[in-house]
Amino acid sequence: MVQQVTEFDTADDLDFYPESDGKPMAENTIQFRWIVLIKEGLEIFFASVLDVFVAGDLLWYPVRGNKYIKCAPDAMVVFGRPKGDRGAYVQHREGNVAPQVVFEVLSPGNRSAEMKRKFNFYQKYGVEEYYIYDPIKNNLQGWLRSNRILKPIANINNWTSPRLKIKFVLTPATLEIYEPNGEKFLTPVELKQETILERQQRQQAEQLAQLERQQRLQAEQQAQLERQQRELERQARLDAVRQLLQMGLSVEQVAQALSLTIEEVQQIR
After folding, report:
1. pLDDT for residue 192
2. What CA–CA distance (Å, rounded) separates 10 from 13?
3. What kind of fold does domain 13-185 have according to CATH?
4. How is the chain split into domains, by residue range?
5. Burial of 149 per CB tally in 10 Å (0-12, 13-18, 19+)
6. What is the mean pLDDT of residues 9-15?
7. SS3 state of residue 167
8. Which of 58, 139, 140, 138 is nearest to 99 (CA)?
9. Could you tell me if 78 and 52 are in contact, meaning their C-beta atoms sit under 8 angstroms apart?
10. pLDDT tens, residue by residue, 106-157
């Protein structure tokens, strides 16, 4: 059962705001891969923070009662709103909290007029940070709100988002995104490979620990055998000393016969 996380004014309100604009989420595999990486990376990063909502390609309706004013960012983050499934982000149902951070991933089909419209939308309706990444050109752009205006981020490489606390690093080949602890945002394939590697490392560590336990056990068993052997040898010397002394040999003769010192024979005696 889907958890309900927003409130509705009337039953009709449920159907007033369409959940789809009829447009595809992505136009090619590269764009889709980047949308998934950013959205899921943010989802994982904020997994333990209950009042941060992350979504991808979800229609956002900022104006109450107007279903025509809308936009679907490729990824968006809303602080102060609970997690949970939604058909759309209808702002007046969400305590009138606007998404603070949005991402767009470009494809060859994106037109300048469309991107200008989106920029104006995000600026007008309260976005604090706006990022556009072009994976084909490996180009990242960002804007940060100052008062009522989104202003360009001059030095975007190695930039740390004030809201998200994640770091953007542009290498010569691609964009890398890092959590504050230095962990990189990974694709599902990379996450799977990392999981497999971690499992293999755990198995190897367990096998090594088991081998060390076996070696310790063998060492303990060997030490026990050596103690038993020494005890047998000691008992044999005792018996031999006593037998030779009973046969009438002197202490000196017994010591010489058994390669012992006179003091050792006297102690046994």
Report:
1. 84
2. 5
3. tt1808, chain A (3.90.1570)
4. 13-185, 194-268
5. exposed
6. 50
7. strand
8. 58
9. yes
10. 988 778 899 999 999 999 999 999 999 999 999 999 999 998 899 999 999 9
